[in-house]
Amino acid sequence: MAVPRFADAGAKYEEARIALFGVPYDRTCSFRGGSRYAPQAIRQASYNFETYMMDHQRDLLDVPVADLGDLPAYGPTTEMVQGVSKRASDIVGAGKIPIAIGGEHSLAPAVVRAFPKDVGVLGVDAHLDFRDSYLDEKWSHACSARRIADHVGVEHVVYVGVRSYSREEREDLERLGLSYVSVYDIHERGIVAGVERALKAINRDRIYLTIDIDGVDPAYAPAVGNPEPFGLAPLQVKKLIGLLAPHLVGMDLNEVSPTWDFGQTALLAARLIREAIMAIGEARG
Ligand SMILES: [Mn+2]
Fold it and tell me: Which of 115, 146, 150, 153 is 20–30 Å from 12 (CA)?
């Protein structure tokens, strides 16, 4: 079934405050493939929800959002990075907020490169993604935080919900001074304290948010490229989005693998994107 656009994203581009686009790319995937099908699955799932949002007592249609459709199915990562950066730069240049729907996490640094170097980046992820390269690929999904750090500086990137990294990543994070907020820290002290700590460390006014859906526990989001137990609850990510909203300049959500889904991962992804749209709309009046 062809889906025309994300539900309630019916604004003309000229009038839109937020512009969505899909990145159906999963060529560096190392375990469970299929995130290239996610933009379509997430758009389909977005029709499940009421336009009126009870928790906000507002209508999503009051926030002007345009859905620009999907970018092409790129070949090499360098081509994808160039294409995604170009699309994001056009949106940022027009004074709008880009929301990219992945695809795999490799797209996030490509979107970040569309921003000036003085933005900060908060990631939600089970993994630190701090390898300098993975399987001979510098733009691998497993290197997202490292490539983002190349652009904004390692001290302005913090991933939240982390519960997995390699020995090599541990050495590099200590050597280069990357901070992160572990999932255990959040389970102990709460999501509000975790986000506050992350924002303090990032020390930037304008924040880009990259959500790898595997940051959420696999009980809620089983259809991901690399599932990791002990994850965040959906409501914690909802809260995080609300806390970040006044600072948000752009966002992506990545790593849904619809082939492994009974639909719940795509539904959660769609709902979190709707949450972000509403929270941004609220924060900007
Ligand atoms: Mn991950």
Answer: 115
